Amino acid sequence: MAVMTYREALNLALREEMRRDPDVFVIGEEVGLYEGAYKVTQGLLKEFGPKRIVDTPIAESGFTGVGIGAAMVGLRPVVEMMTFNFALLALDQIVNSAAKLNYMSGGQYNVPIVIRGPGGPAHQLAAQHSQSMEVYFYHVPGLKVVRPSTPMDAKGLLKSAIRDDNPVIFIESETLYNVKGEVSEDPDFVIPLGEAAVRREGTDVTVIAYMGMMYRAMEAAEELAKDGISVEIVDPRTLQPLDTETIIGSVRKTHRAVVVEAGAGFAGMGSEIAAEITEEAFDDLDAPVARVTGAQAPMPYARNLERLKTPTKEKIADAIRQVCYANGSR
Amino acid sequence: MAKTLTQKAAPGPALDAGLAHKLLRDMILIRRFEEKAAEAYALGKIGGFLHLSIGEEAVAAGATSVLRHEDYAISTYREHGHCLVKGSDPRRVMAELFGRIDGLSKGKGGSMHLFDKEHNFLGGHAIVGAHLPLAAGVGFAIKYRGGDQVIVCYFGDGAVPEGEFHEALNLSALWKLPVIWICENNRYAMGTSLERALAQTEIWKFGETYAIPAEPVDGMDVLAVRDAVGRAVERARRDKTPSLLEARTYRFRGHSMRDPAGAVYRTKDEVEREKLRDPIALFRDRALKAGVLTEDDAKKIEKDVSDLVDEAVAFADASAEPPASELFTDIFKERG
Fold it and tell me: The pTM is what?
C-alpha cells in the first residue's frame, strides 16, 4: 500500500497493464509529448515509446474508430478522451460500432477497448465542459460503464477494464485527480467490474452516490450523525453492470433510500436506481425513495449559478432528513 | 499522379485460363446470388433492407483477386459480393440473409452486417463512413505487429462528404498504414447524385489532398481494377503506404429493394446505357476473344454457380430460426 493521488493511481494502472501485455496501447490527444492534458499519462511516452503512446490530431471519431478497428483484430487500446465531452464526437463509433460488433457478428468480433477520460461537473468550465456524460452510455446494451470515486478504485477498476474483453467507458473526474488515498501497489490487484462498495455503514437510511457526490454525501452523513441519523453510503462504482444486489440489500436493512447524482435528474441514473429499489424492495420501504440531482439546466459559468445547478451537501442532508421524517423534529 | 502509378503493374496484365475462370466465376457468383436474394426478398424470406451490388461486381472480384487469405476486407451495407469473394460459404451468407441460426452471425446481423472471421471479413457496416476509421485501426494493428498484411476498405461515393472519410484518410497517410481505400463510385448516394453532394466530384483527387497515391479506375473492367488494386497492395505491403482508388461503377438496381418503382433521381435511358457496359458481359467477351476461355467453359461456370446458389437457398430454407436464448448471447464476450 502507498498513499498516492487518483491521477497517480490511474498512471500506475496504465503502466502495470502496459508492462504486462504488449497489446495494450494508449491513444488520444496530447497523451504523449504533452504528457496528458490532465497528466494522467505522464512519463508513459518515455517508458513505452511512440509506438504504444500514440498522439493523435483532434479527430475523436477517427481515433476512436482506429481503436475499435485495432481491438477487432486483437489489440487492447486505451483511448483517452481529453474530456468526456469530446466523446460526443465519437458517439456513433462507440454506440454503433464498439457496443454492437460482438452482437452483430454473432460473437466473432469482440471489442476489448477502454475509453477513458474526465467527465462530470468541474469548476466553472461552463456548459460544454462541465456535465455528466455517463447517461449517454449506460443505456446502450454492449457497453460497460465505470465511475471510480477513489484512488484505489481508479487503479483497480482501470486494470479490470483493460483486461475486459468488451468496450468499457471509464469516466474519471477533473475534481478528483488530486484526491489522495491508499492504493495497492500489487500488480495483480484488481477490482472486478460490477461490484458496489459500502463507503460507510449505517442503519437508518441508504444513500447511493458516486464520484464527487459520494464525498458530499459522506460529509452530510458526518453532520447527520451528530443528530443521531445513521447513514449508510453505497457507491456503485460500476453503473453497467450495476450491482443492484448490494444496493437492494442495504435498503432492506435501512428501509430508506436517497439517490444522488450530479447530472440532470430526468431519466438519469437516479431514476434507474429508484425504479430498481421500488420494484425489488417496495415492501421494505418506510418512505418514498428520494432523489437529489443536478438541476434540469445546462451548466452555467457564474459561481453562484453553478452552485445552484449542482447537488450540495446541504441538499443531500435535507433529502436524508426528509426520508427519515426528521425535518425540524430532531 | 495517376501516370506514375501505372508504370508497374504488380500482378501483370497477363490473362490466363485460371485467372479468367476465377474472375468470371466470382462475378457471376455475386450476380446470381443477389438475383436469388431479390427473389427471396419478394417472397418475404428476407426482411429489412436488401442492397444489391448488381452491376458493381468487377470491383469486388478484381480487388479480392490480388489479396491473400490473411489480408482483411471491410465494407458497407452493400457487401454481399465483397464477403462472398473473400471466401465465405454462400450457404452461410444466404442463411444470414434469411435470419437463420446457420448464418455467419447466427442470424443476428442480417444483410447489412455480414462478418466472417475465418476469412478475415470484418463486416458489414451500415452507418455511412463509420467503418473507415475502423479500417485505419486494422491497418494500425497490422503495422503495430509488424505484419505485411493489408486491409481493403470499400465505401461508396456517399461516404466521401462524411467527416470520417477525411479523418480516416488523414490518419492513414499521417501514420503510413497499409490500407487500400476503394471508393465504389456508383454516382448516387441513395438518390443524391455526385454533383449534388460533392464540390470535388473527382473523388480520387482527395488522395492528393492527403498526399497518398490515388487514381481513378474503370470499375466495370475487372482487369483494370485488379491491376490498380494490385499496385496499391504492393505499395502497402512494401512500405505501408495507403492508396485511394476511385472505381467508377454503376448499380443496375435500386439503392435497396425499397427504392420506389418510379424513382426519378436517374433516367431509364441512363440505366439502360450503363447496362451496355455490364462488367460480366464485357469480361466474358474479352476472355473468349483472347482464347483463354471457351463458350463451354463459360456455360459450365454459369451452371456451377447456379447450382451453388440453389444449394445456398435450400440450405438457408432448411436452417432453423435462432433460438430465443440467442437474444441475450454475444452482448458481451465472456471469458472462458
Answer: 0.96
